[in-house]
Amino acid sequence: MDPIRNPYAPGAGQRPPELAGRGDQLDAFDVVLERVQRGRPERSIVLTGLRGVGKTVLLNALRSAAVRKRWGTGKLEARPDQGLRRPLASALHQAVRELGHPQPGEADHVLGVIRSFAQRDAGGGAKLREQWNPGIDAPVVRGRADSGDIEIDLVELFTDIGGLAQDVGKGVAVFIDEMQDLGPDDVSALCAACHEMSQSGLPVIVVGAGLPHLPAVLSASKSYSERLFSYQRIDRLTREAADVAFTVPAEDEDAFYAEAALEALFAATGGYPYFIQAYGKAVWDRAPASPITAEDVAIAAPEAEAELAVGFFGSRYERATPGEREYLRAMAEVALKIAADGGEQVDDVGSVPTAAVADMLGKKPQSLSPARDALLKKGLIYSGERGKIAFTVPHFGKYLLAQA
Q1: Strand ranges inside 211-315, DSSP E
Q2: R_g (Cα) of the chain, nearest Å
């Protein structure tokens, strides 16, 4: 097969040639946009799932839908070492520009509030180079969104942004990737601002994406967050959707799959979108001609696995210290033992008890707390419920056992 015509696209956040299995989320978001624009009450949205299921791709697709409706949009990626003010100010600056308010004075006032919100981070005695300027020419608006209390300031900022959008009969959507990495104060402020927008009916929504424990992060901040957001779990694709993800891009290039090849590919990928793209690319490059067969899949599998071992699993494994890697391997061994014993019920993400991991290592749970906490902060594992942990990366346990 011609590698130049290879349609598959394994990459972080890179949109696949066919966004299969996400039609329900896209259709539901179109309804949200219309309702908010008409002043109807709607909740902000939170997408959750493991790494590699396409949360970032879907987040970008939802943003594109908002842009087509002529909404103002902005996107940021949360980082544990960075506060919310500056990246959010940059995202909202872009949103105001996209709104295109016909009265420059009104837009300049809101831009001045955004600038004030951002520069409050620098502090009163900050040097000129520390007074971050997001490219806004409008003068700073003092006394608005600059109190220093992030919750008060964000409510004021969203209120002004919402008023500007309401003037032109549109809305503003803020898209936040890796939302679980926001600091506690920022999460609390974001929840309060979304709550205020829903009560006031202003057309501002937040669309966040994060790991499976993100709902718990939000709930720990504000009890009402369970009712504040519409939570949508983004999971691996069904067999039918996975077949579409493989076949539609191939058919666009006049190539086809044998049924046995599709069965083998689903068994290998488990329906995870990132794995589908990695296997699709490898199989295309290795297959001599169409139709692609199960034998072609078997020949290409080692290449796909090598690609995943380096770009998907290995890059994360390398971030762990020797002690943390030992903890990760113990998690994989515990999950394998539980599955083999057939005793305790294993959930669909492979959660394992922390006490069992300690037993596997022959150590007290308290002594393993530093390694566990470090892995949680690095985003390699998460805790969906008290006393249990799971990998944030699908098939990571399988990779670790193969490495051992």
Answers
A1: 229-233
A2: 24
Instruction: Check: pTM over 0.85? Answer yes or no.
Output: yes
User: Residues 290-346: pLDDT tens digits?
Assistant: 999 999 999 999 999 999 998 899 888 999 999 999 999 999 999 988 888 765 555
Torsion of CA 392, 395, 396, 397, to 10 degrees: 120
Q: Which of 154, 120, 11, 49 is nearest to 390 (CA)?
A: 49
Return d(Cα 155, Cα 149) in angstroms, integer: 10
> Cβ–Cβ contacts within 10 Å for residue 212, how many?
19
Residue ranges of the alpha helices (H) in 48-146?
55-68, 85-99, 104-119
**Which amino acid belongs to residue 276?**
I
Architecture of domain 23-233: 3-Layer(aba) Sandwich (3.40)
Domain 322-403 CATH class label? mainly alpha
For β-strands 172-177 and 204-210, DSSP reports them as parallel
Identify whether the C-beta of residue 84 lies closer than 8 Å to the C-beta of residue 268.
no
Q: Are 37 and 69 in contact (CB under 8 A)?
A: yes
